[in-house]
Amino acid sequence: MMKKIFLMLLTLSLTSALAVTALAAPIAAPIADAEKAVSTAAGSYTVQVNGKDSGAAACIMVPLRTVAESLGFTVQWNNGTVLVDDGVMHTEIVIGKDLYTVVTSSDSLVGMSAPFSLGVPSYVAGGVTYVPLGLFDALLGSKEGTVTINGGTIQIEADRTADSNTEIPNPFQNYETLDTAAQAAGFSLSVPETVPGFQRSGIQVFNNEMIQVFFGSGEDEILVRKAAGSADISGDYNVYAETGTLTVGQLEITVKCNDGLVHVATWTDGGYSYAVDASAGLSKAPSPP
C-alpha cells in the first residue's frame, strides 16, 4: 500500500503549470557581498548582475549566540535543537532544518506563528551556530525598521513597545481549495483528496510562491510541496542513512531514507521543484516498466 501512496503522490504532483515568476534558489551570502544585492526582506536579497536579476537569492547568516544574547535572549542547546527565549518571545531551532516557528507568552500578542522557511537552514561551523538574520526580525515582531542594513552595518532595533497588539506575522496562508491556492501562487498543484490511509488535512501557500498540501493519519503526516525553480524545497536538511535516486518515468527522483523507507523525495520538472516529506517514511516505489 505504501508503494502505491508514494507513486500516486509523485504522479499526481506533476501537473501542467501556469506562468509564474521563478522562485530563486536561496544561498548563504557573506555580509560583505550583501551590498551588491537588492534587499527584498530582512536579511534576504535578490542578486543582480549588471543591473539585471540573476535568478539567485542570498541570505545573510549571523552567529546565533552573539546576536541573541545582545538582544536579551538566552540560548540553550539540547540534542541538536536550540531554544532561544527572552521570557516573552521564543523559538526552538532544529540544526540543519529550514523550518522555524516563533511563539509568544505575552497576553497582548497572538500565540504561535505557522512554521515558516527563511531560505537556509541553521548550521554549525567552527563551533559557532549560524541562523538567518530574518529569524531575529521575526522574533522582534517583523516591524518596519526592526532590521536595517546601511553600508556594511546591520542595525537591529529591539523596541517591543509599539504595536504590541500586532499578531505574529504568518507567511503561510490557508486555503480551502487547490483552485484558490493556485490563484494565489500563480501555478497549480494536483493532489488527491485522500490517499490510502491518509486524509488531506490542509492547503497553504507560502508568500504567494509555494503551495504545500498536508495529509494526515494520526500522528503520521505527508507533506507535498511545489514551487517554481530548481531549489530543494523540502525544508528537511537532516542527515539520513541512505541517499539515492529512483527513476519514475522520465524523472530522476532524489530520495533520502532510513531503514529502507523514504522520508524525503525531491525532483524538478517543467521549471518547477517538487518535494514529498513523510514523517513515518514510505516504501520505495518501483520504476514503471
What's the number of domains? 2
Task: Output the number of helix runs.
Answer: 5
Number of β-strand runs: 21
Q: Termini distance?
A: 19 Å
Rg from C-alpha positions? Answer: 20 Å
**CATH topology value of the largest domain:** Copper Amine Oxidase, Chain A, domain 1
CATH architecture of the largest domain: 2-Layer Sandwich
In percent, how helical is the residue content?
A: 10-25%
**Pattern of helices and strands:** HEHEEEHEEEEEEHEEEHEEEEEEEE
Beta-strand portion reads 35-45%
Principal-axis shape: globular
Largest sheet: 9 strands, antiparallel
Secondary-structure-based class equals mainly beta
Could you name the CATH homologous superfamily of the largest domain?
Copper amine oxidase-like, N-terminal domain
Q: CATH top level of the largest domain?
A: Alpha Beta
Mean pLDDT: 74
Segments where pLDDT lies below 50 for 5+ residues? 1-7, 11-41, 162-168
In short:
The chain is mostly beta strands and 289 residues long. The chain has five helices and 21 strands.
Throw out a few tags for this protein.
single chain, mainly beta, 21 strands, Copper Amine Oxidase, Chain A, domain 1, 289 residues, 5 helices, 13% helix
Explain this structure.
- With 289 residues, this protein is mainly beta.
- The protein has two domains: 117 residues, no CATH class; 132 residues, Copper amine oxidase-like, N-terminal domain (Copper Amine Oxidase, Chain A, domain 1).
- Helices cover 13% and strands 45% of the residues.
- It contains five helices and 21 strands.
- Strands 13, 14, 15, 16, 17, 18, 19, 20 and 21 form a nine-stranded antiparallel sheet that branches. Strands 1, 2, 3, 4, 9 and 10 form a six-stranded mixed sheet that branches. The protein has a four-stranded antiparallel sheet with strand order 5-6-7-8, covered by helices on one side.
- Strand 15 and strand 16 form a beta hairpin.
- The N terminus is likely disordered.
